Amino acid sequence: MDIVYPYKSAPDDLELRYSLRSLANVPHDRVFVAGDKPLIIGPAVQHVPEARIDDRYQSSTANIVAAIWAGDIKGQFVVMHDDIFVLRPWVFRHEHRGTIAEYLRSGEASGEYRSYIESTRDILVSKGIADPLWFGLHTPTVYDAQRLLEMVEGFEGHRYLLRTLYHNLHPAPAARRGDVKARLWGEPSATADILSISDDVARSHSFRRWIAARFPDRCRYEIATTGKCLILGYGPTLWVDVEQALDGADYAAVIASPEAAEHWPGDVLAIAHDDDHADRIARSIGFDDVTWCGRTKEAA
Predict the structure, then answer these.
(1) Rg for the chain (alpha carbons), in Å?
(2) Is the CB of residue 232 less than 8 Å from the CB of residue 242?
(3) What is this structure's pTM?
(4) Cys-Cys with 252: which of 63, 167, 227, 231 at CB 3.0–4.6 Å?
(5) Cα separations (Å) of 277 from 18, 36, 77, 226, 255?
(6) β-bridge mates for residue 99, sequence order
């Protein structure tokens, strides 16, 4: 099966990097990232550009639909998210967290998220499903491409959560399990198959050390960083520095300030807003060998 990541850019793409590495535990075919383009992906990942929608739930659904059309995906496919990591060899099984009514009574959902759950429940009740199940698990899930496209078209203009709506309308035997989302960092148990994390956990140094040790090897979905990276900054010596830097040297990638990017004749991997930003981008992508041109003494 193909794998689709609906993606909204995140600082340094760290979660996506390790989520992609964890796909070693998932039998799969092609990998798509739909939405924003991550800096860390190589040519083995098919990026599908899709403009953001202010509503994050609608935006995620639009990204998945765009990937289906762009990749001509047929039959079943897997949806992953960048904050999901597959810790053990994994085969899909249908799972739920009980009923929507139970989840709403728990008080865990509030604000816009709760209103989306309630709207999803109301749609399902109107379709004759008296006590719909809650599929809000932070795990990979599987859809049928044609069924999903038909459902999205049929409910255009409605507010709903894709996973819960789809799996209630296209039911299959499902087992109940607890959520795997970690909102405070603590190492998962040795038997855990899936880990999902909150934004707070993603920023945790302890988590970052743990995930780097758990998946230390680069995968084929990451950009190759074996060469040199050329950085074009804001300093007045920029083009003199460039002339010297290009003398007999080859570069695997270029990171540039917006002004330098306008005049650079080749491809620019990323735009940096100041010296520190450029250094962070180069490190996050994995470049150890960096040549600076036009470095300034302080951030612009």
Answers:
(1) 22
(2) yes
(3) 0.84
(4) 227
(5) 22, 19, 36, 21, 10
(6) 133
Question: Would you state the pLDDT for residue 12?
Answer: 80
- Give me the DSSP letters along 214-236: HS-S--TTBPP-SS-EEEE-SST
Query: Taking a C-beta distance cutoff of 8 angstroms, is the pair 233, 281 a contact?
Result: no
DSSP letter (8 states) at residue 33:
E
SS3 193: coil
User: Tokens 């490190």 appear where?
Assistant: 283
| Residues linked to residue 3 through DSSP beta bridges, in sequence order | 31, 78
Q: Using the 8-state DSSP alphabet, how is residue 237 labeled?
A: T
**Please, is 17 exposed, middle or buried when counting C-beta atoms within 10 Å of its C-beta (0-12, 13-18, 19+)?**
buried
CA distances from 139 to 19, 64, 91, 109, 193 (A): 12, 16, 12, 18, 10
- What count of other Cβ atoms lies within 10 Å of the Cβ of residue 125? 13
Rounded-to-integer distance, Cα 23 and Cα 80, Å: 10
Kindly report, residue by residue over 48-89, the tens digit of the pLDDT.
999 999 999 999 999 999 999 999 999 999 999 999 999 999
Structural domains in the chain plus CATH codes: 2-214 (3.90.550), 229-293 (no CATH)
pLDDT at 157 over 70: yes
> Side chain identity at 103, as an amino acid letter?
Y
